[in-house]
């Protein structure tokens, strides 16, 4: 392919300028240095989705390396930095760490790839600790590059666990230059991975660590200071407000795509899973042997179908890649009941039941021994796909992608009774208002995204679709008692909802902001249980009433025989994707305590 077609015009201009890289003005010369940055690779070496068993076009470190090679061809002077979250995330990485674990002396596939990519330095992110300190030690031992962090200390010695920074002694157009790279990780790891880290290490606030170690870098006579920050723009702003002497920040953690300047300092965040490459172009003056930044320009390149996977990486991880495909195709547990999502917007369902059971299982264990252990714990889940279909019997890893299609991360929010009811009222907008006296056919379901129809487990409630929006939740109880406005609950959800997505929550009180994927929690739950039985609890239902006309809703023709097969009363197929619902008969599916 013609690789120039995939590169923005501004880069072609810079490439032409780079043909004459050094311009002499007496004792002053002008040079270009390009800092390449990646972040949040999360073990995604290959352009492949193991949960759908399909190749993809827009991510994978093997493709990112192709961009890196292009950049190295275009620019004479480059360094390559990653900001962390490299060793955990993909099924490939999970398998190597937990399912068929590699041993000390072996090399994780992502580290193999990064060795080939020839990184200069890698910051340590929060997910580096998900498999424990020993596995991180294994990864560090197998890396051909330093992995650093300036704000994590050993509990026993009170000394830094890792080197806080490195000084890269390089040349720019033949002239020596000293580049200091310092890294910071989220202090929240002490909550996120408390079980693995408590009593072994502790984290220092990022700004405090930056104020301590950036000046030390400057004292060592470096010409540039590059920060590898496994956090986003707000933390970058805080550092720059309090610490002088920083020339660039490569950010990560939140998986955003950013090429910008903060207080005049260039910053990049190159997405996640190897879907982007950050570039910070420094135009440097060398004045009588001293370096000075003349200007800088941040930029992003993106992986797409035109970018081919680097063959040397493909070959290096071929065995582990193929073994991972075999793994996701193999059963990891069984389900005693079929998991079908076709009617999940009308009646309590196995899909949301499974997600809620898994989320509650995870968080109950997580909060043991904490201040939150005794608080009422609920869980919210939505039917992301209303055509989810897993038959009774074997459950495969790939089925998790059918049940939970988004790469959300698990969050827990604290709400009071009033906020809880508001959350449910927003979900109840899933339904149209039904006039029971109308003889016209009425559609039960509104134009409403299924991923916003949260079902909350741990409480009992009913939805009265005869009422207008905002007045539909009735008979809301917790452990048999009416939910009062000032009662407090913890609700397990995802980052999208906790951040205000779907407008269910406003300025949520987030007590756990985890970076563990909800989908991974489901997989771990199935593996732990062996056999699951996500039979609906029917803790929610539609208030039954007689209607003068038909009430209908649309679903898939594939569900035509499901009411009979699953013994669901009150729903019948009437043709062309349309189902009729009898709300009184539907209530016969629901335990009497809830129906009343």
From TrEMBL:
Which ranges carry the 5'-Nucleotidase C-terminal domain? 332-503
**Alphabetically ordered keywords of this record:** Hydrolase, Nucleotide-binding, Signal
Q: Which Pfam families match?
A: 5_nucleotid_C, Metallophos
Q: Which domain of life is it from?
A: Bacteria
Signal peptide boundaries:
none
Looking up PROSITE patterns in the UniProt record yields: 5_NUCLEOTIDASE_2
Membrane-spanning residues: none
A Gene Ontology biological process noted in the UniProt record is: nucleotide catabolic process
Question: What is the protein's name according to its record?
Answer: 5'-nucleotidase/2',3'-cyclic phosphodiesterase-like hydrolase
- What organism, scientifically named, is this protein from? Mesotoga prima MesG1.Ag.4.2
């Amino acid at each position: 392919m013609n690789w120039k077609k995939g590169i923005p015009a501004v880069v072609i201009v810079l490439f032409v300028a780079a043909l004459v890289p050094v311009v002499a003005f007496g004792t002053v010369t002008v040079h270009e240095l390009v800092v390449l940055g990646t972040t949040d690779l999360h073990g995604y070496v290959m352009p492949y989705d193991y949960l759908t068993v399909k190749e993809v076009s827009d991510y994978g470190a093997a493709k990112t390396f192709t961009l890196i090679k292009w950049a190295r061809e275009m620019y004479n002077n480059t360094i390559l930095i990653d900001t962390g979250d490299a060793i955990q995330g993909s099924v490939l990485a999970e398998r190597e760490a937990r399912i068929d674990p590699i041993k000390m002396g072996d090399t994780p596939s992502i580290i193999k790839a990064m060795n080939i990519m020839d990184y200069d330095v890698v910051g340590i992110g929060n997910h580096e600790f998900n498999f424990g300190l020993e596995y991180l030690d294994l990864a560090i031992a197998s890396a051909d590059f330093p992995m650093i962090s300036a704000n994590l200390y050993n509990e026993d010695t009170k000394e830094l666990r890792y080197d806080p920074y490195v000084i890269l002694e390089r040349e720019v157009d033949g002239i020596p230059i000293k580049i200091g790279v310092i890294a910071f990780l989220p202090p929240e790891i002490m909550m996120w991975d408390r079980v693995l880290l408590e009593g072994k290490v502790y984290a220092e606030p990022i700004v405090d660590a930056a104020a301590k170690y950036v000046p030390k870098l400057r004292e060592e006579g470096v010409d540039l200071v590059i920060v590898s920050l496994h956090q986003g723009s707000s933390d970058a702003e805080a550092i720059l407000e309090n610490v002088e002497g920083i020339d660039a920040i490569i950010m990560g953690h939140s998986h955003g795509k950013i090429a910008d300047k903060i207080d005049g300092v260039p910053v990049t965040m190159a997405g996640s899973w190897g879907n982007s490459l950050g570039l910070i172009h420094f135009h440097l003056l060398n004045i009588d042997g001293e370096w000075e930044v003349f200007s800088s320009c941040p930029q992003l390149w993106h992986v797409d179908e035109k970018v081919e996977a680097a063959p040397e990486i493909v070959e290096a991880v071929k065995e582990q890649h193929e073994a991972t495909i075999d793994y996701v195709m193999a059963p990891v547990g069984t389900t005693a009941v079929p998991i079908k999502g076709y009617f999940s917007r009308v009646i309590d369902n196995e899909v949301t039941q499974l997600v809620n059971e898994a989320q509650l299982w995870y968080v109950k264990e997580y909060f043991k021994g904490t201040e939150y252990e005794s608080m009422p714990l609920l869980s919210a889940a939505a039917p992301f796909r209303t055509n989810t279909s897993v038959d009774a019997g074997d459950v495969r890893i790939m089925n998790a992608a059918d049940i939970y299609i988004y790469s959300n991360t698990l969050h827990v929010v604290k709400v009071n009774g009033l906020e809880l009811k508001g959350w449910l009222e927003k979900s109840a907008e899933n339904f149209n208002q039904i006039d029971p006296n109308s003889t016209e056919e009425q559609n039960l379901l509104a134009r409403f995204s299924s991923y916003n129809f949260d079902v909350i487990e741990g409480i009992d409630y009913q939805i009265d679709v005869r009422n207008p929006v905002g007045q539909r939740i009735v008979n809301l109880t917790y452990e048999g008692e009416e939910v009062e406005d000032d009662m407090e609950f913890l609700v397990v959800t995802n980052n999208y909802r906790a951040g205000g997505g779907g407008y269910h929550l406003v300025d949520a009180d987030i007590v756990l902001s985890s970076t563990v994927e909800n989908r991974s929690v489901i997989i771990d739950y199935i593996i732990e249980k062996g056999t699951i039985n996500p039979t609906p609890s029917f803790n929610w239902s539609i208030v039954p009433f007689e209607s003068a006309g038909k009430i209908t809703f649309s679903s898939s023709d594939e569900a035509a025989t499901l009411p009979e097969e699953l013994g669901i009363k009150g729903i019948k197929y009437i043709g062309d994707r349309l189902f009729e619902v009898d709300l009184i008969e539907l209530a016969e599916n629901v335990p009497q305590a809830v129906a009343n």
